[in-house]
Amino acid sequence: MKRKSFREAECPVARTLDAIGDWWSLLIVRDAFDGIGRFSDFQKNLGIAKGMLSSRLRDLVEAGVLELVSASDGSAYREYVLTAKGRDLFLVIVALRQWGEAHLFRADEQRSILVDGDTKEPVERLRLFSANGRTLEWADTELTPSGRGLERAE
Question: Angle at CA 41, nearest 5°, toward 81 and 7?
Fold first, then answer.
């Protein structure tokens, strides 16, 4: 069965899932944030088949999420590093982590904790803010038909 492509979908969520939506790709990105860059290290850490890993790494490079560069230690190896586009996925990975912590673990169950690198304090739960700084929940938001004509301050 051929997978449907959402590459040209109007919905940003559909396009995102088309590029990085399978669990292997997201776990590879997670590992890249944790400093893994070599094929063998991804394979060992994830326990993924080599063919599947090759395919996912190739797709992530084609999507501009990872790039293949000379090894940082000067060896003949090559390693995968996150591009700026890939680093922009950090909040997505944190949101998935926080959702999993809130809904998939018992209170007494051990898990890794994401902490501030300077203070070593756990990071706060992600929140969505309006342009004026008000915290937004799902019910406080709405979609426009296509977003055309909206000005966006960045």
Answer: 50
Classify residue 47 as exposed, middle or buried by CB count within 10 Å of its CB (0-12, 13-18, 19+).
exposed
Which residue, 80, 55, 53, 77, is CA-closest to 66? 80
**Does 92 score more than 70 pLDDT?**
yes
Give the residues across from 82 on adjacent strands.
66
Decide: helix, strand or coil at residue 132.
coil
* pLDDT score at 1: 61
φ, ψ for residue 102 (rounded to 5)? -75, -30
Tally Cβ neighbours within 10 Å of residue 37.
Answer: 20
Alpha-carbon gap, residue 20 to 29, rounded angstroms:
9
Look up tokens 């990872």; give the residue. Answer: 66
Are residues 80 and 61 in contact, defined by beta-carbon separation less than 8 angstroms?
A: yes
Count of residues making up the chain: 154
- pLDDT of 95 over the 90 cut: yes
